[in-house]
């Protein structure tokens, strides 16, 4: 096996280089994965653009956390995994040809997924968010923001017997939401009209579940307005660019549950990863309409530009390694 690998390094705001660096070595309880690809997460956009607390250069492969590939080496004490296994994993430096993962954060990929890109981590996030949403048959679920995450949640909620109303700013993603099962779609352009539309579609009751998937202030404000009394607001958007203000008076008056659905417990996260692999292998979820852009490692900046600007029917990029 080669001693060095290519890895993306964030050198400064919107500036990547591809460096030749040593291949990491697996320690006890770890495996080394030769990556086939890594999904590009929207949470990468703000660090890539440069946040006030950012420092450079970043770690080789840093920010890449949606990788999959084949195990090429085992650390001491690893059991239940073998060299050659095709896996997806929870790691942190997968914008590179190789990455190390804890063995207990690795999930084998069944043969049904051979040859397919499998960014397991973002699907795992969707599975865990859906579990926290407690969607029940017959409920109305409003999903604010239809991208990769919102589209998967639309499918999961529809399959669970809920009526989904999708709210998104692009015509292309509203069409995607309909293909994923949404019963109704609303353009995300006018705050008060959206509220009136949801009120009309629910006979004035509003929605028992609202899932916010954008990570910005206005969509959070809007989502709070759309929740029915006694309903549940699920915050799935990743709010990383500063503090938020919320209308606590309205939240209190409605008596709603607030769920911040970002899991940090390692056991919960890997359980979500297993559920994601099962959903993909069974055909319950199909990523083919969602993975809309493939990029080489030295095109990572272009992939992030597309992730930020979302041209046309773009949903999600991934880097082929």
UniProtKB/TrEMBL annotation:
<keyword id="KW-0479">Metal-binding</keyword>
<dbReference type="InterPro" id="IPR013154">
    <property type="entry name" value="ADH-like_N"/>
</dbReference>
<dbReference type="Pfam" id="PF00107">
    <property type="entry name" value="ADH_zinc_N"/>
</dbReference>
<keyword id="KW-0560">Oxidoreductase</keyword>
<protein>
    <submittedName>
        <fullName>Zinc-binding dehydrogenase</fullName>
    </submittedName>
</protein>
<keyword id="KW-0862">Zinc</keyword>
<comment type="similarity">
    <text>Belongs to the zinc-containing alcohol dehydrogenase family.</text>
</comment>
<dbReference type="InterPro" id="IPR002328">
    <property type="entry name" value="ADH_Zn_CS"/>
</dbReference>
<dbReference type="Pfam" id="PF08240">
    <property type="entry name" value="ADH_N"/>
</dbReference>
<dbReference type="InterPro" id="IPR020843">
    <property type="entry name" value="ER"/>
</dbReference>
<dbReference type="InterPro" id="IPR036291">
    <property type="entry name" value="NAD(P)-bd_dom_sf"/>
</dbReference>
<feature type="domain" description="Enoyl reductase (ER)">
    <location>
        <begin position="8"/>
        <end position="308"/>
    </location>
</feature>
<dbReference type="InterPro" id="IPR050129">
    <property type="entry name" value="Zn_alcohol_dh"/>
</dbReference>
<dbReference type="InterPro" id="IPR011032">
    <property type="entry name" value="GroES-like_sf"/>
</dbReference>
<dbReference type="InterPro" id="IPR013149">
    <property type="entry name" value="ADH-like_C"/>
</dbReference>
